[in-house]
């Protein structure tokens, strides 16, 4: 489990971020420590300067004797020895020479200087445990080779700084531990989600197409990916179910034509050559084969349309011209069946689409309308813009007064090989509306059925176009 966790990208990224965050935190806390130390030294230096100013005011108002007496008085106080005072002749001991910045070649007069010196350099009468303590001193040169020293014990300040350093170190360790723990928890969470996805994928591979990737309430990248994968799985399941239905329907619908063809060919073996009966059976056999070929061509055509994603052959189609051409053609067909045919198309009707597929779609709908409309009936083909500001749709309607379709079967008729009981005795393979639906899906358009009272009205709604473009075309 640990090895699996360490190999996850999420944990490695979390580890990198944890170390980077810990480094930044350590730098920030180090700067805070340095600022705290500077503040403490500044406060100590200010107090040393204040004490020195008090002594210098006594010196300037009196003499060395008064200054020496005040220093002795201050050193003899029976209080906590926070300050140390000394008035020293430089001929006896030059403290300026003990400073780290002092130089034998320095020729300039010494100025008041802050320095940190060991306490034993100032006084030797110390307990053993205090001989290594540091003292912060302010050295001020005085006339007649004297020097005034005011110092303070740094032990309390150093203890405070050590305490601050310990706290900051603990804080860094806590931050690093928390960051690593957070990285581990993040890695565990990601690993659990990946394992769930892995298990679901295994079940799908084993054949359970109803499985879907698990989703969570929060909308993160895993959720977005899972939604896309679920949509893909739903689409694949639909395709698989469609293929299974197509296979079953194909086997069922082709069984009768093939049996009829088999019986006719068997009968031909026993008929006199070149007889009228033999010729009739041959014609029927050819018709059966033609029907089978038409069925397979329709299936291949639908499959080709559904798998097509290229739009190289798409163009701006003058639908006004196409509608009138189809109207002239089917007016003649309708007259033979004594059907009234009405055509209407709005002027300058432009549609960007595949010309051949659109023509085939309208032709299929008109074929159905003519086939299922009885003599004396009516068929209407119309095309127009339907404005919905700021866009407009291209609408094509094919309406008839035929036998119609029950409302409960409006969606089912788009399935392949679907033939309603009312038309089962007529010629056809049940693929016409399936092809129309495939073309509409390819063009991202909508198809809807409605009752024409009597008959059926098929409405094709193509994608909206800008009204400004429409006005320009007009």
Task: Give a structural overview.
- The structure is a single chain.
- The chain is built from eleven helices and eleven strands.
- The strands form three sheets. It has a five-stranded mixed β-sheet with strand order 6-8-9-11-10. Strands 1-4-3-2 form a four-stranded antiparallel β-sheet. A two-stranded antiparallel ribbon has the order 5-7.
- The chain is rod-shaped.
- Helix content is 55%, strand content 18%.
- Helix 2 (9-61) packs antiparallel against helix 5 (155-205), helix 6 packs antiparallel against helix 7 (276-307) and helix 7 (276-307) packs parallel to helix 10 (432-442).
- Residues 102-109 and 125-131 have low confidence and may be disordered.
- The two termini are 70 Å apart.
- Strand 10 (446-451) and strand 11 (456-466) form a beta hairpin.
- It has three domains: 1-98 and 109-211, no CATH class; 223-307, Helix Hairpins (Orthogonal Bundle); 314-473, Histidine kinase-like ATPase, C-terminal domain (Heat Shock Protein 90, 2-Layer Sandwich).
- The protein has 474 residues and is an alpha+beta fold.
- The protein has helices spanning 2-6, 9-61, 64-75, 119-122, 155-205, 221-268, 276-307, 319-336, 355-372, 432-442, 467-473, and strands spanning 83-89, 113-118, 134-142, 146-153, 314-318, 340-345, 350-354, 378-388, 391-400, 446-451, 456-466.
Number of helices: 11
Q: Give the overall silhouette.
A: rod-shaped
- How many β-strand runs? 11
Main beta-sheet annotation: 5 strands, mixed
Which strand order does the major sheet show?
Answer: 6-8-9-11-10
Q: Give the domain tally.
A: 3
Strand content: 15-25%
Q: Runs with pLDDT <50, length 5+? A: 102-109, 125-131
Distance N to C terminus: 70 Å
Share in helix:
40-55%
What is the typical, i.e. mean, pLDDT?
A: 78
C-alpha Rg (nearest Å)? 50 Å
Structural class given helices, strands, pairing? alpha+beta
Order of helices and strands: HHHEEHEEHHHEHEEHEEHEEH
